[in-house]
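Onboarding guide, step 5: your first structure request.
Type a short instruction followed by the sequence, for example:

Predict the 3D structure of this protein.
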Amino acid sequence: VCVCVCVCVCVCVCVCISADGEVTSKPMVIENQIENKIAFIRQHAIRVRIHALLVDRYLQTYYDKLGWFSDPYEVFQDIVNDPDKYYIFKSILAKTNVSKFDLPDKEAYQDFFGVNPVSGFKQLSYHCSWSAGCLLENIERAITHTLPALLSGAASPPPPPLPGTCEGPGCEETPKNRWRRQ
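The system replies with structure tokens like these:
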């Protein structure tokens, strides 16, 4: 039987009584769950960022290759069927914090654009506003700053030093100035 008491969303303590009457406390289980959720959200944000960059690159290539008398459907089908010809994935790999292991398959975007027409998307530059900034910048800020700060805040503090030992910044010897008269 376990009883959990939560002070707020991040601080919960579970006390469990086993069948033989032993009482145990499980605060670490909940801390690990929170850390795992934050890590999962960060991974999902990375996938969303890469997807947004890829769709934006497909759109940019489409608008660059679309001429006055060309068929829009044929132009886009050519781009989707042969993205290597237009360096779609290589240009995304050249961006910061993008790994080749994070990139989805080319076939996934053939399926994606088969279901979602190109006319339903706007380029990322159109999603910028003066008050909220750009969506891609917000995602990147969350990936690089906000979520890691949450993760470090969710980590448990280090145990206090044992009595009689001195650890930490307050215990260090202060350096003496050997050039100063005493």
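Each response can be followed by summary notes, for example: Residues 30-155 form a domain with the Topoisomerase; domain 3 fold (CATH 1.10.268).
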